[in-house]
Amino acid sequence: MFNGLVRSFSIKRVKNNNGNNDAKEAADEMAREAKKKELILKSCGYVYAEGSNNSASVFSKRGEKGVNQDCAIVWEGFGCQEDMIFCGIFDGHGPWGHYVSKQVRNSMPSSLLCHWQKTLAEATLLDPELDFEGSDKSLSRFDIWKQSYLKTCASVDQELEHHRKIDSYNSGSTALTIVRQGEVIYVSNVGDSRAVLATVSDEGSLVAVQLTLDFKPNLPQEKERIIECNGRVFCLKDEPGVHRVWQPDAETPGLAMSRAFGDYCIKEYGLVSVPEVTQRHISPKDHFIILASDGIWDVISNQEAIEVVSSTAERPKAAKRLVEQAVRAWKKKRRGYAMDDMSAVCLFLHSSSSSSSLSEHVHHVTTYK
């Protein structure tokens, strides 16, 4: 079960727009964390911080608000398991947001591997006859991944709070991640980035299925928690419809999401870093999953997004084309507003040779938003 987990990283060197080897930086950080914690977690596989291949496409573009606070990762061969892949989108905010998002990106995968191993081992010790190949294997595996994610997010947030070099008191980051293990995907969401699945309906049309909830402060369950913690939720006069979280007696920090890492100035007033964890079994009708930061979803609908990706002839260019389409849409729909950072990961669920041409479905789509 743990065979190969002590092997070292194999890094796919993909340079970002600034010429920095962001993928290697992320992988090296994971290796350091694993070594520091004295874990047998060094993992083989390929890490992409920006770049593409035929199984996944990654792209990020800086907006008009300063440094790009988004970052992403795709880790093939996650945990030295050939049938596992880890994908994530991290959207920072605040003065130190770009540092926070990178820190969360760099620490979350290795921490998740650690907790997954530990939880899996504990489950096996408690029940030596636990059969992951039996009829209840999906429930058992989901519970193990859910517990691993809950522990990971708690530890990542705690470590971030005590980080010596990053001031996350008024800064934070969202984290939307997916682990694919065989024919099952496990989705963990902290914040307002979104995961959307492209699948074929019973009528034969390519339709969008939203896999995650945008954790905005005005969601009933989120608003209730915030108010119970003496936080406030309201919109500014010049931003009608944009609900934000505020401290009880001050108009700060004004967060537009209800869950995030960091932002300790508002944590006692209802902001949490607890993830929503779900699973989905992949069917032959499921073609790909898009993970994207909220800047894209502000101007592109779920259906529009899958149409853009499905109509892209070359898979490695899919994420870039989606971001470019969102940039054009922003200039038309939100003229006068500074464009947000935009990042996307497109995870293709079947090999290009085994799946039918997605473009065949684009002309027969139904609206699904």
Plain-language structure description:
This protein has 369 residues and is an alpha+beta fold. The protein has 2 domains: 22-214 and 276-362, PPM-type phosphatase domain (Phosphatase 2c, domain 1, 4-Layer Sandwich); 220-269, no CATH class. Helices cover 30% and strands 25% of the residues. It has helices at residues 22-36, 97-126, 137-161, 220-228, 294-297, 302-310, 318-333, 359-362; strands at residues 46-48, 51-52, 56-61, 70-76, 84-93, 172-173, 175-181, 184-190, 194-200, 206-210, 232-235, 243-247, 250-255, 261-262, 276-281, 286-292, 342-348. Strands 1, 4, 5, 6, 7, 8, 14 and 15 form an 8-stranded antiparallel β-sheet that branches. Strand 2 (51-52) and strand 3 form a beta hairpin. Helix 1 (22-36) crosses helix 2 (97-126) and helix 6 (302-310) packs across helix 7 (318-333). The longest helix is centred in the N-terminal third of the chain and has 30 residues, at 97-126. It is globular. 46% of the residues are buried. Its EC number is 3.1.3.16. This is protein-serine/threonine phosphatase. It catalyses: O-phospho-L-threonyl-[protein] + H2O = L-threonyl-[protein] + phosphate; O-phospho-L-seryl-[protein] + H2O = L-seryl-[protein] + phosphate.
